[in-house]
Description:
Blueprint: E1 21-23, E2 30-32, E3 85-89, E4 94-98, E5 113-116, E6 119-122, E7 124-125, E8 141-144, E9 147-155, E10 167-171, E11 201-204, E12 208-211, E13 246-248, E14 257-259, H1 272-276, E15 284-285, E16 288-289
Antiparallel strand pairs: 1-2, 1-3, 3-4, 5-6, 7-10, 8-9, 9-10, 11-12, 13-14, 15-16
Amino acid sequence: MNELITAVLFSLGLAACGQGVLLNPVTGSGGASSGSTSGGTTGSVLNNLGCFLSDGGFELDGGSLLAVEFAVECSDNSNCPCPLACVQDQEVGYPACEYLCGISSDDCPDAFTTCVEGICRFNFCSATANGAPAPSALGGACMAAGGPNSGTCIPQAADVPGKPPYGGCLQAGSVQPNSLTNSCWTNQELIRSGPLCEAGWYCTEYSGCVPLGPGGCQVPDGGVAVRTYGDHGACDYSTECACPLNCVSQSNEPTPLCEAPCEVGGGCPQPLCVDAGTCPARMCRNGFCD
């Protein structure tokens, strides 16, 4: 999945935690989303009135609304392709185009979302995009729409030292590892109704469902072939790194790199290129061998 956050995070004055604010499709003013069909509360009913029926100039990645969901910062429903609505989202950190739902997460096509008070909310794990703690750890099981341990916590960005790594809880499916057809790769948009890996596994182009380790790295001895980046290979997410390496964005490096974890004050294994004089020595920096 592409990185969720594509806009600068900024502070929003929102309703109580757990409530969304639906932006008025006419005036753009906000009001607590207390009147969804699922919440049983009172107030104006959530709606997507004013959403547009064409792509409105957006590049929809071949027509996929999931390319716009959460990625477009909106001011009102007119910024969102139907059936999405413009919703202020405390955990995402900015007003975003999101799906509305009834009483079930089955109404939410994105397997990273669950239905909360009439809105298909991104199901954060480890931490939210704005740094608030969230349940579960990257690479581990998490609570998706199917209940406890029914999802996998997938990293959504490279680790940044000093900031909690944030992830998304991906609804698990029933695709078995070592599948000859690699059916999960036909569902690259991670649609809930499509083929998805079992909990704790991650879909790759070359190997189908592979196991994840701490931080979301790929386990190289998981019984299936994996194709990942090694030590100091450029990366975007830890799912691209072979365990125990994680994808880390160090302030002294121009791009995130796959780096091994280390104890502060401890040593780091040195690759052969150090003795050959073709790469710098590794040192423990911010908990990773940089």
